[in-house]
Design a protein that fits this description.
This protein is 29% helix and 31% strand. It is globular, with a radius of gyration of 23 Å. Helix 3 packs antiparallel against helix 7 and helix 7 packs across helix 8. The strands form two sheets. Strands 1, 2, 3, 4, 5, 8, 9, 15 and 16 form a nine-stranded mixed β-sheet that branches. It has a nine-stranded mixed β-sheet with strand order 10-11-14-13-12-6-7-17-18. The chain has two domains: 40 residues; 400 residues, GMP Synthetase, Chain A, domain 3. It is of the alpha+beta class. A hairpin with a 7-residue loop joins strand 15 and strand 16. The chain contains nine helices and 18 strands.
C-alpha cells in the first residue's frame, strides 16, 4: 500500500514539474530573465565602502567620454552646465543600488555632490536611499521654489511663506516588448503662498517664476538629447562599480542633516494622487506600470541661506524622505546642499542607469561594468528683469559599457535603455504641465 502511495505521489510531482516546465519555457525569454533577476540573490562581499546618502564628492568629476564645458555667463546671463556620472554599487540586498555624482562646472574648488539611489528594498525594509525619480522630482520642485523667491525679490515683495508641491505621473508602455517605452505623462504643480500682497501681484510673481523655472521649461518643451554608446576602451580607471552600502538614512555635513526618513509618511496638502495601486501583480501590470512621485519644497527660513529649502519626497516604497536643496549666491559661494538643478540632472542620469540595469537583465546581457555620463546645459536670460526666461538647451548623454557582446546586441541594449528612461523621455518630449496657485488657502484663477 505504501509503495502504491509513493508511486502516486512521485507521479504527481513529475506532472507538476512538467506543467511548471512547460509554463516556464512558454514564457518569453525577457520574462524568464526578469524572474531570474528578481529572485536571484546578489553576491555578498567581505569589504564595503560606507556612504552617506548625500555627501560631498572628494574631488572634481572627470568624465572619460567627453570633456565637460563651462557655460557662457557673459552679458548678465545665469547659465549653468551640470555634469553627472553614475555607477552601480554592488550589494547583495539590492540589485538597483547606485551612486550618482553631480557637479556644476566652471566653479573653482567646487567638487559637487554624490547621491545614493535605490529602488530595490525588500518589503518592510527601508531602501539605501531615495529613488532616481525622487531626486528628479525634488529638483523640479525646489527649482520652482527658488524662482518664486527670486521673482518676489524682483518685485520688492515679502512673502510670509512659500511651498511648492509637484506630482509627476510616470508610465511604461509594454516595457518588455522591443517597442517598449517609458513616459512622463503629466506634471501637476501647486504653488502655495501666504502673503498680504494682492492677487494681481502674486499672479505676476507666478508668471515670472514659471518663465524662469529652468527644470520646468526643460519638461514643457522638447529638449534636444544627444546620446552616445561607448563600448570598452580606456574608460574604467577612475570609475568602477564597487561593493558599498549606506549605514543610515541620515546624512550629516558640517553638523547639518541633509537627509532622513520621516517618522510617518507625509502627503501633499493639495495634490491628490490618481494612480490606483495594482491589486494583483502580474507581468502585464509590470510592463504597463503607472506610478507617481511627489515632492514638497518648503522654505527653511534661514536668513543667511535664503534659498535653502527642505524637500519632502515620496519613493516607490511607502516611506517619505526629507532632503535639502540650496543655491549658489555668488562667485565664491558654496551651497550647503546640492542645488535644485544638480538634483534634477543627477536624477535624470540615475533613472537611465536603472533602465540599463533592467534591460541588461531582460536581455541576459553579459558585461563587466557599465555607467552613465551626462551633461545638461541650462540657460537663463535677462536675469533680474521682468523678461527673465530659462531653457535647457541640450542633454549630452553617454552610456558606457564593458562587454564582449556583439555590436548588434549592444545597440539593442542601448536603444531600449534610452527608450525606457522616464526622465529622459520627459525631457525629449513636451510634457503636459498643470499648475495652480493658492494665496492664503484660496486658489487664484
Amino acid at each position: 500500500m505504501k509503495t502504491k502511495i509513493s508511486k502516486i505521489i512521485a507521479a504527481v510531482i513529475v506532472i507538476i514539474a512538467l506543467v511548471i516546465g512547460v509554463f516556464w519555457f512558454s514564457m518569453p525569454s525577457e520574462q524568464r530573465n526578469m524572474v531570474y533577476f528578481m529572485m536571484k540573490k546578489g553576491k555578498s562581499y567581505e569589504n564595503y565602502k560606507d556612504y552617506q546618502v548625500i555627501d560631498r564628492n572628494n574631488e572634481a568629476l572627470a568624465p572619460t567620454s567627453f570633456k565637460p564645458s563651462v557655460a557662457d555667463t557673459i552679458g548678465g546671463h545665469n547659465n549653468r552646465n551640470i555634469v553627472a556620472i553614475t555607477e552601480m554599487v554592488k550589494n547583495e540586498n539590492s540589485k538597483m543600488l547606485k551612486k550618482g555624482m553631480v557637479q556644476a562646472t566652471g566653479i573653482d574648488n567646487y567638487t559637487g555632490w554624490h547621491l545614493i539611489a535605490d529602488e530595490g528594498a525588500d518589503e518592510g525594509a527601508n531602501p539605501f536611499g531615495p529613488s532616481p525619480l525622487s531626486y528628479y522630482t525634488s529638483g523640479l520642485a525646489a527649482n520652482l521654489h527658488t524662482e518664486i523667491l527670486r521673482a518676489a525679490e524682483l518685485k520688492g515683495v515679502k512673502l510670509e511663506n512659500v511651498k511648492v508641491e509637484v506630482l509627476n505621473k510616470f508610465r511604461w508602455n509594454e516595457m518588455m516588448s522591443p517597442e517598449g517605452a517609458g513616459f512622463l505623462d503629466l506634471t501637476t504643480t501647486n504653488i502655495i503662498i501666504e502673503s498680504n500682497v494682492s492677487k494681481e501681484v502674486i499672479q505676476e510673481i507666478k508668471e515670472l517664476a514659471l518663465n524662469s523655472w529652468t527644470a520646468g521649461e526643460a519638461l514643457r518643451n522638447e529638449t534636444v538629447i544627444e546620446p552616445s554608446l561607448v563600448v570598452n576602451g580606456e574608460n574604467w580607471e577612475n570609475y568602477r562599480a564597487t561593493p558599498g552600502r549606506t549605514l543610515s538614512e541620515e546624512s550629516i555635513i558640517d553638523n547639518f542633516k541633509l537627509s532622513s526618513i520621516t517618522d510617518v509618511p507625509k502627503k501633499p496638502a493639495y495634490l491628490k494622487p490618481v494612480v490606483k495601486e495594482e491589486v494583483t501583480p502580474s507581468f502585464e501590470s509590470m510592463a504597463n506600470l503607472e506610478f507617481e512621485i511627489f515632492a514638497i519644497s518648503e522654505s527653511v527660513e534661514n536668513s543667511d541661506r535664503p534659498y535653502l529649502n527642505k524637500i519632502t519626497l515620496s519613493t516607490p516604497t511607502p516611506e517619505t524622505w526629507e532632503i535639502y536643496a540650496d543655491e549658489f549666491m555668488g562667485d565664491n559661494d558654496r551651497p550647503i546642499a546640492p542645488t535644485s538643478l544638480e538634483y534634477f540632472t543627477a536624477g535624470t542620469a540615475l533613472c537611465l542607469t536603472s533602465q540599463t540595469t533592467l534591460v541588461s537583465a531582460m536581455m541576459d546581457l553579459e558585461f563587466t561594468d557599465y555607467r552613465i555620463e551626462n551633461q545638461i546645459d541650462y540657460r537663463q536670460e535677462a536675469v533680474n528683469s521682468s523678461e527673465m526666461h530659462s531653457y535647457a538647451d541640450i542633454v549630452h548623454s553617454y552610456i558606457l559599457i564593458e562587454s564582449n557582446e556583439t555590436q548588434e546586441r549592444l545597440e539593442a541594449f542601448y536603444n531600449k535603455s534610452l527608450s525606457l528612461c522616464f526622465a529622459g523621455e520627459g525631457l525629449k518630449n513636451a510634457t503636459e504641465m498643470k499648475t495652480q496657485c493658492y494665496l492664503n488657502g484660496k486658489i487664484i484663477k
